[in-house]
Amino acid sequence: MTGWIEKVTGPLEEKKRYRQHRARLRALPEPYRTAQEGVERYLMHAGGMVGGDSLVRMLDDLDEIFAGAVADRTPVRALVGEDPVAFVEDFLSGYAEGQWVAKERRRLVETIDRAAQADPSVPDGEAPDGEAPDGERPTSGGGAS
Amino acid sequence: MGRQMTEMLKGTLEGIVLAILAVRPAYGYEITAGLRDRGFTDIAEGTVYALLVRIEQRGLVDVERVASQKGPPRKVYTLNDAGRTSLAEFWGTWSFLAQRLGQLRAEGQ
């Protein structure tokens, strides 16, 4: 999928974008700079990002949010809210594909798919979550989804 | 604001923002002001901005950058066809939930 050119230029492009991000952060007025540094520290330590494109995109987006707050004169507290952790966790949820745990999430889904397919308690051709006729419920398996 | 309200808003904020944009295109700060005016206080503005980033990436809004006298250009968000489809789906889900919950409530009274 990735050619050798992208293998070389991709990371270079990301490095460039990362340097631009650092420069924007340094230029940010206080107290926004301290706040964004705090948010970023949390993202780096607790975000579980593998790096690469989603990480750089995440930092770019964060820059935009903070730059927007400066432009709109939104106070730091109003921007981040009473629960800064909740704010950052919500922000982070937009970049789930860039977290190392994404691989494990996919693996879990595939494993359960395999296990469910081999499940002897589900007769062939019967959808486990299918609608039961006349309001009757299957006595086992299925269950509300 | 109660924890329950926070949790419920988490699942509905996107629909609420799309609904606000269905009224007219708006800047980010107009959207947060619109939320406050409608009684949705205590939502961190950053949460709304992060949501705007996400719905832009998912192609639910068209974005136009407008130069401002001070600071970076501001973005105007306009609901597009994909956004209207998503909003219609949200209202469908909302009606379904409201109806089923109303039924459940009536059963227990």
From TrEMBL, chain A:
<dbReference type="InterPro" id="IPR008316">
    <property type="entry name" value="UCP029876"/>
</dbReference>
<feature type="region of interest" description="Disordered">
    <location>
        <begin position="112"/>
        <end position="145"/>
    </location>
</feature>
<protein>
    <submittedName>
        <fullName>DUF1048 domain-containing protein</fullName>
    </submittedName>
</protein>
<dbReference type="Pfam" id="PF06304">
    <property type="entry name" value="DUF1048"/>
</dbReference>
TrEMBL record, chain B:
<dbReference type="InterPro" id="IPR036388">
    <property type="entry name" value="WH-like_DNA-bd_sf"/>
</dbReference>
<dbReference type="InterPro" id="IPR052509">
    <property type="entry name" value="Metal_resp_DNA-bind_regulator"/>
</dbReference>
<dbReference type="Pfam" id="PF03551">
    <property type="entry name" value="PadR"/>
</dbReference>
<feature type="domain" description="Transcription regulator PadR N-terminal">
    <location>
        <begin position="17"/>
        <end position="89"/>
    </location>
</feature>
<protein>
    <submittedName>
        <fullName>PadR family transcriptional regulator</fullName>
    </submittedName>
</protein>
<dbReference type="InterPro" id="IPR036390">
    <property type="entry name" value="WH_DNA-bd_sf"/>
</dbReference>
<dbReference type="InterPro" id="IPR005149">
    <property type="entry name" value="Tscrpt_reg_PadR_N"/>
</dbReference>
